[in-house]
Each structure stands twice: as C-alpha cells, then as structure tokens.
Design brief:
The complex is a heterodimer of chains A (315) and B (617). Chain A has 12 helices and 11 strands. Chain A has helices at residues 15-31, 47-55, 66-72, 89-109, 134-138, 149-157, 170-176, 186-191, 217-220, 225-259, 269-286, 293-311, and strands spanning 2-8, 35-40, 61-65, 112-122, 124-127, 141-145, 161-165, 181-184, 200-202, 208-216, 263-265. In chain A, α1 packs antiparallel against α10 (225-259), α2 packs parallel to α3 and α4 (89-109) packs antiparallel against α12 (293-311). Chain B is globular, with a radius of gyration of 24 Å. The chains are: A alpha/beta (315), B mainly alpha (617). The complex binds sodium ion (2 copies). One sodium ion sits between chains B (247, 352, 358-359) and A (166, 168-169).
C-alpha cells in the first residue's frame, strides 16, 4: 500500500484534528487497503522542521500555515504576510482562487501536491493597555515570533518596538512586561490564555492565517489517477468543513474572552485609515524580499478586480 | 578520571616534531572552543545593550542558535580527542589486561561504525539543506554552518579509532570491525527485519563495554529507523532541530557560569560562610551541607559535580562536628543532588524546552517543591546531628561578618541569575549570558582566582567539552524519541492508558516507580529527552498540568541519583570519598526513604507545585 504520513501541529482533539480523522476514515472507505494514511497530530516541532522532515522523506505530507509553506516556495507568503492587504474572508477566498493555480504549480515544481487549502482566523492586536491608533502601539513592546528577522526589521522600520520570542514565552513575558502587545488570532489568544494579561483587543483584521495540506508528489503519484481524484475530492470536502469550523471558532473565542473581561476596542474609520497608511508603508519592504514581486502584483490586480466588481454590486 | 593526563602521555610517546605539532593543534582547538563560548556570552549582552537604544540585532538569536551548534560539535570533537565522551562506567571497570583491551577494541569498532553513519546522515541533511537554499543572515548560507555536523562526526569517528589502542594492529582491528559493520548495513546479508535484533544486541554489548552514550542512543535510533525503511537523515534533522532551539543556548551559558564558580575558589569561601552562619547550632553543619549542596547543584546541573567539588570539603567538617561516619557519608551523598529544581538548573530548562512551557514558569513551579526536599533533608541532618551537642562552637559574629564579606560576590551570583531571569528585561538565554559574564567577572577580575589568559581559556574549554558531550547525547536522544513518534508509540501508550489507567493517581504512582528505575539506569539528560515526549500526551489526557508533570519528573530524577544499584551520586561519592559502594548505599538509605516521601508529597499534592505559578499569573 501507499503509506501517507501526515504531520500537523494541530493538537489531538481539536476540531481541525477531528476533521482530519474524518477525512482519514473517508479515504479508507474509498481506497481500501491501497492507501494508508497515518496522522501525526500535535507535532511540537516548528513548521520549518516539518518541511525538513518531508524533504528527508521521514514524513511525506503535512498541514502547514504560510510560515512553513513559504519555506518550500515563497509565493505562498502572499496570502498571509502582507498586513491589511485583505479586508475580509471574501477577499481572501477570491484572491486565493485566482492565484491558486500559480501557487500550486510552483509547489509542484518543488515536489509537493496541494491536497487542500485552509485557514485559521485573523490576527488581531491584543494589548495590556488600551489602544486603537497605530501610534498608541508604538509606545508598547510588540511580540514577533522568533526566527523571522525580516519581520523584526519591518516592524522596527515602521516605528514599533519588536521583541522576538518563542510562543511559549508570550504569557510570562506579558506578565513581566517584556512585551505588551501580541498580534495573534483570537482562538490562539483564548487557548493560550493571553487575554489574562492582554485585556484589550483591537477589532481589526491585520493578516489572515492561511495554510494548506501538502503531500510529496512522488508519493502521491504512486496512487492510481482515478483514486487520486476521488481522494482529492474527499480532502476538499474536509477542507470546507475545517474552514467553516475555524472561522466560527474565532468568533466563539472572542465571545468567551469577553465573558472573562476582554475589552474589544472598536476600529473607527479614522483609525482604520491610519493603520492602512502604516501597512502601505510596509509593502515596498515586503514586495521582493518576502513575497515574490510578480505574485505580489497578481494579488493586487485580483483585489482591484474584486473591489471594482463588488462596488458595482456583482462580486 | 584525568583523561587529560592520558592524552598528554600519548603525546609524550610520539617522536619530537609530531608531538609539538599535535600539542599546537590541540591548543588551537581548545582556544577556538573558548572563543566560541566567549562570543556566545557577549552577543546577548550586546543585544541587551542595543535594545535600549534601537531594536537590537535582528539576527542575533539566529547566530546564537548556530553558535550553540558549533560549540556542541567542537566540544564533542575535543571530548573525543581526550577520551571524555560520556560513557557508562560499568563492565570496563571489572575487566583487566588483555580482556580490557579487547573490550575497548570491540566497543570502538561499533562506536566508529555508528559515528560514521551519523556522519553520513548529517551529510545527507546538509545536502538537502543546501538544495533548500536557506540563509542564516547577511547572505551566509545555512548549510555552511550545518556542515559542522558531518565534519564533527567524521573527526570523532577517526579519533575514536585512534584512541582504541596504542598499537597500530589493534587500531586496524577496530577499524576492521567498524568496516564490516558498515558493509553489513549497506549490503544486508539477510532480511533487514531479521537483522534488527542482532544489531541492537551488538550495540547494547558495546555500550556495556564502554561505548559512549551518544553512540548507544544514536545507533539505536538509526537501526530502528532502518528497520522501518525511514532514511537515517531523520536523526540528523532532530539533532539539528534541538541543538538550534532558540532557548537551548541557556544550557552552555549556565554551564559556563557554573564552571567559573567551581574552578575558582568559591567552594571554600561558601563553606566558610555557611559554617559561620549555621554551623554553631545543633545539627547546624548538616544545614550548612544541605544549603551549600543545593546552591552548587543549581548551577552545575545534574552532572554530579557537587559531590566531586564539595564531598572532600564537607565530610571532614561533618565528622569534626561529631556526626557518625555513616551519617556524614549519607548526608553528603544525599544532599549532593538537592537543588535540581532551583534556578538556573539545566534539567529544568531542558524539560521546559521539550514540553513547550516557559522556563521561568518551570522555575517558579519548582521553588516550593525544592524547598520542601531541602527542608526534609535538613531535618534528617539535624536529627542525625543530635549527638553533636557537646561539640557546639559558639556563634562568632565577627567571623560570620568576615566570611560573608569575603564571599559576597559569589553569594550575589544566584541573585544576579534570578533577577536577570525574572525581572522582565531579558529572555532566559540573555539571563544566562548575564550570569556567565558575572561569574567570569567575579572569578577573573574581582577575586582573581583565575588568570584571564592563564586559566580562563582552559576553564571555558572545559565547559565546552562538557557541553559538547551533553549536546551530542541530547541531539541523538531526540532522534531516538523521534523514532518512537514515527512508530506512534506515544499515541499507543496514550490509547493504552485511556483503556487501562482511569485514575491519574494510579498513573502517577506507576510513573514514580518507573522513573526511579529509569533514573537509576539512564543519564538524566537522555532520560528527559526520551521519556518526557512519551509522558506529555498521557499527562494531557489525564489533565495533569505540564508544570506539575515536569516537577514530578525532575523530583524523581533527583531522587534516582540516590537509587541503588548505580545511582550517579552513589558512584561519585564512592569514587570521591573512597568508600565501597555498598557502604555508601547503606548510609544513604534513610535519606532515600525520606526523599521518596517528599517525591510522593509533590506528586499527590499538586498544590505544592502549582500554587506559586497560579498566584503569579
Ligand atoms: Na521557553
Ligand atoms: Na531540590
């Protein structure tokens, strides 16, 4: 049988993991003993390490966010690493469909097939002190995930005080005051209890967390084409489910945190405009060094298309 | 225990010119190691300074992570040169003459074969990374730094064979064993499945006959991966991943701080302080012993350095205070492992890294349990010292003042470490650098125990050798753990426990007993790396807080240092104090019982551990 070893950082028991297990059951029904899918959930390794393991054939599939996917091909960072580029999920969905063939063919050129695309919430600013305007946050120390020096530089150039830390250091560092702002999606803030220290959330979509399940092309090719199409279909169904669930989970997390005293800071039009201006200033630093220039331009073209169409009332 | 002498002796046996060249080369290696560690100390300090005026050096953490890789590999290479790779000291001690030589040739053959495969595995890893095209910073390709792994393992392999014997034909014999093992693995003479067990058996035999611990773990990992048809590169990826973990530089840096302290005159000054402060009341010398041991171990980790450094100093003090020989021996041996839970002790840091909890929270969680164990040990000491009544010396305020004043800089060391860790202006790694730098200042500039050019490079190279030995073990141990994950052993254990272990109390009791055995047999760092990932999913399912699980685990490890038959403290006390191991074991039995009760209290009353961190959150 073809053995697919799929690793994910999703912990056992989360809704995402349950959906993957359902997909596994459906695959088994469709393929019988021809394909064996093993899911390694809750992998504590960082995403770059999972990519290394796939390259070494220790595992041959993984669910990754754009952080890991852009280790394989930088083009994927276009969906996650441009602040304020997308306003809402509709825009993300539209643009992703537009550039998907391009992203998938680039990943294929690096030896990986995309099983499905998924996402996991919008990054929002959680802070210890109230804040809305970008200048409010320039006085606070801002968390940046360790191992991404470029992001440090960008945030510094925009006038912020970034401090690079590991995820597990966030909560204690909030306590000691080493950092006071954490940009994370609400479900993560809730799960890791950041809201105990950072009681203010700015109601503004900074960047979406976007990801995909990928599998090594050489392994995938061992499955007969008809069966492959069938499995792909099942995966797409699972992805739809994961997407709906995670989007709902983010809203639920905000409700839960509000009950525990989270203050949601509204994002007025003036505040939004100020943030957009800041984000605009970061684009020249991102286009090229982080997101390949041609993909960056494709995203902007697609967005312009979408916005023109929705302004005309036909999205 | 002076392998440096052996290396000097083997150099002396060489013809003149070659010996001089070799000595020069060894000197270059030592100084390079010291230099790398020095940069590791300075880089975070510069970063802290720059952060006050700008946002610092964006790629400083990445450089630091890879400096750890370089220190680890070079430390391993130097350890191999001097025959100081950590090994189980068992059967070789029993063998004599020709048998001993034969055992050495055999274990070297196996060790060289394993190391050669580790070299190949990391070579494949570097090739893969080169294709991936990662960049460290400033355009330096990652693979150039990662090449330290294959180069290091290559040199270690050659040095193992070189040290196998003094004669060329014996070396050739070791080489032949290595070559035939490699050939057998590359061109298997039978089904791989049927070769797994014999291969593991050969590895076990070599380990018992003195092959380094990293060979045992790395070899087992590669053999098992081989049997599952997974490329052995998997071991190198894990090795690289762990050694370049962003929090890991804290381990070499705190080790260095500990070395500056133990190599300087701190131990004498501290013994004097505790003697003057608490030595005067009933059982006071026992309290002094317990406190000073905890103080030292918190800086030197679970390496057993405490007994080696202090055992000879404390025994006479206790005996002079009319403790019976047996009680004194028991107290020194038993106190020698206290302090494993106190900041900045390395096993706690390692657990925090593996369990993905914050280092500082782990230390906060360990504080009350550590004090409990210290108090219980001290209480027994006071009871044992009840006969010391009549010999009581008077409290001498002036002597206490003088002793405190003389040792003020050393006494500040934990204060520096704790303030740096918990004040909020430094990460744990930066706190470690601050502590190491402070320890250097005290030893070299203030107390002048160590000459800057004469002693410091030597002390730093010594620390580098220990770090190298530990990091080799940690890296390949995680490779072994990764095999367990690949074979889904943690999931199966969790499923099995879901069916068979309903109560967390039953699980914890089983855990206590299992860990006592594991801790008595396996090196502490390897035990943490291999066992902790197995426990985490079960603990999570049973609702045990990872902080509590960690403290239970480490308290058990601390206890197992005293566990017969081969707890590390028993061996070291027997070695350092020149007592038969049976006598040491008998002397430490009461404390073993008391500390076991302490571990049970910590295990079954989670509140002891969790009260402080929950209150502080
Ligand atoms: Na940490
Ligand atoms: Na302790």
């Amino acid at each position: 049988p073809v053995e697919i070893k799929l690793a994910t950082i999703l912990p056992v028991g989360t809704s995402g993991h349950k959906s993957l297990m359902e997909m596994r059951a459906a695959w088994q029904k469709a393929a019988g003993p021809a394909v064996k899918l093993t899911i390694y959930a809750g992998m504590a390794d960082g995403e770059p390490l999972l990519v290394k393991k796939m390259r070494a054939r220790q595992i041959n599939a993984a669910v990754l966010t754009a952080v890991g996917l852009s280790e394989i091909d930088r083009s994927v960072s276009s969906l996650q690493m441009m602040p304020m580029m997308f306003h809402d999920w509709n825009e993300v969905d539209y643009v992703r469909e537009k550039i998907r063939p391009e992203l998938e063919s680039r990943l294929r050129a690096k030896g990986f097939e995309v099983l499905f695309w998924a996402d996991a919430g919008w990054v929002r600013y959680f802070s210890k002190e109230p804040g809305a305007h970008p200048d409010d946050y320039k006085k606070m120390k801002l968390f940046v995930l360790a191992g991404v020096p470029r992001q440090m530089e960008i945030m510094r150039d925009l006038g912020y005080q970034p401090v690079s830390l590991e995820t597990e250091q966030i909560l204690p560092s909030l306590t000691t005051g080493m950092i006071s702002v954490v940009p994370v999606p609400p479900f993560l803030a809730n799960a890791l209890q950041f809201n105990r220290q950072a009681k203010y959330m700015l109601d503004m979509n900074w960047v979406p967390i976007v990801g995909a399940a990928i599998v090594r092309s050489d392994v995938w090719a061992k499955i007969p084409p008809e069966l492959r199409a069938q499995l792909q279909e099942i995966a797409t169904v699972a992805a739809g489910k994961i997407r709906t669930q995670t989007r709902a989970e983010d809203d639920d997390a905000i409700v839960a945190m509000k009950k525990n005293g989270l203050v949601v800071q509204p994002c007025t039009p003036e505040v939004l405009a100020a943030w957009r201006a800041i984000a605009q200033r970061s684009y020249p630093m991102i286009r090229g060094p982080i997101v390949p220039a041609d993909i960056f331009d494709q995203v902007q073209t697609a967005l312009a298309e979408y916005r023109a169409a929705s302004a005309a009332g036909t999205p | 225990m002076n392998p440096g002498d052996q290396s000097a002796a083997s150099i002396a046996a060489l013809p003149g010119g070659e010996a001089v060249l070799r000595r020069w080369w060894h000197c270059i290696e030592d100084h390079a190691l010291a230099l790398l560690l020095g940069v590791m100390v300075l880089l975070p300090l510069v970063e802290i300074g720059l952060r006050q005026v700008s946002s610092g050096i964006p790629s400083a953490p990445d450089f630091l992570r890879h400096l750890t890789l370089l220190v680890g590999m070079l430390g391993g290479v130097v350890a191999a040169r001097d025959g100081r790779l950590l090994a189980l000291a068992t059967a070789t001690a029993l063998l004599r003459g020709r048998w001993k030589a034969l055992a050495l040739v055999f274990n070297t053959g196996v060790a060289a074969a394993v190391t050669a495969f580790l070299c190949v595995a990391s070579l494949q890893f570097v090739a893969q990374e080169r294709e991936g095209g990662g960049v460290l910073a400033y355009g330096i390709p990652l693979w150039t730094v990662q090449s330290a792994m294959p180069v290091g393992f290559g040199i270690i392999c050659l040095r193992l064979i070189w040290r196998a014997a003094a004669t060329w034909w014996r070396r050739t014999f070791a080489l032949a064993i290595a070559a035939s093992l490699i050939l057998a693995a590359v061109f298997p003479p039978a089904e791989i499945a049927s070769l797994t067990l014999p291969a593991l058996a050969a590895l076990l035999a070599a380990t018992l006959l003195g092959a380094p611990i990293f060979v045992a773990l790395g070899g087992a990992a590669m053999i098992l991966f081989w049997s599952r048809d997974v490329p052995i590169t998997a071991v190198s990826i894990e090795h690289y991943g762990l050694v370049t973990n962003p929090a890991l530089p804290a381990i070499p840096l705190f080790t260095l701080a500990g070395y500056f302290m133990t190599e300087g005159g701190a131990s004498q000054r501290l013994v004097r302080v505790f003697q003057a402060l608490v030595g005067w009341f009933r059982g006071g010398p026992a309290i002094a012993t317990v406190l000073i041991c905890a103080f030292f171990t918190s800086f030197t980790g679970g390496s057993g350095v405490t007994i080696l450094a202090l055992g000879g100093l404390l025994m006479p003090v206790l005996v002079a205070a009319r403790f019976s020989e047996r009680d004194a021996l028991g107290l020194v041996t038993g106190a020698g492992s206290l302090g494993v839970l106190l900041p900045p002790c390395l096993p706690v840091i390692l657990y925090a890294i593996l369990a993905k909890v914050d280092i500082r929270e782990m230390f906060i969680a360990g504080l009350v349990p550590a004090l409990l164990l210290i108090a219980m040990t001290g209480a027994w000491g006071i009871w044992a010292g009840r006969k010391s009544d009549e010999s009581r010396q008077r409290f001498d305020l002036r002597e206490a003042g003088r002793a405190l004043w003389a040792a003020k800089w050393e006494l500040m060391l934990p204060v520096v470490a704790i303030v740096a860790l918990f004040s909020g202006w430094a990460t744990p790694v930066e706190a470690a650098a601050v502590t190491a730098f402070y320890a250097f200042l005290v030893a070299a500039l203030i107390q002048r125990d160590l000459g800057i050019l004469k002693d410091c490079p030597r002390v730093m190279a010594e620390a580098g050798v220990l770090v190298g030995g530990i990091l080799l073990i940690l890296g390949v141990a995680l490779g072994f753990t990764n095999y367990l994950v690949d074979a889904q052993i943690p999931d199966r254990l969790a499923e099995w426990s879901a069916v068979h272990v309903q109560s967390r109390w039953v699980f914890l009791l089983g855990l206590n007993i299992a860990l006592l055995f594991i801790g008595g047999l396996v090196e502490i760092y390897a035990a943490i790396v291999v066992v902790v990932p197995l426990l985490l999913p079960i603990g999570a399912r049973l609702g045990i807080d990872p902080l509590h699980l960690g403290i239970i685990f480490l308290a058990n490890m601390e206890l197992s240092f005293l566990a017969p038959p081969i707890g590390l403290n028993l061996l070291l006390a027997s070695y350092r104090l020149n007592k038969p191991i049976f006598e040491v074991t008998r002397a430490v039995l009461p404390l073993l019982g008391i500390r076991f009760i302490g571990v049970l209290l910590i295990t079954y009353i989670p509140w002891i551990t969790l009260m402080l961190p929950e209150w502080l959150r």
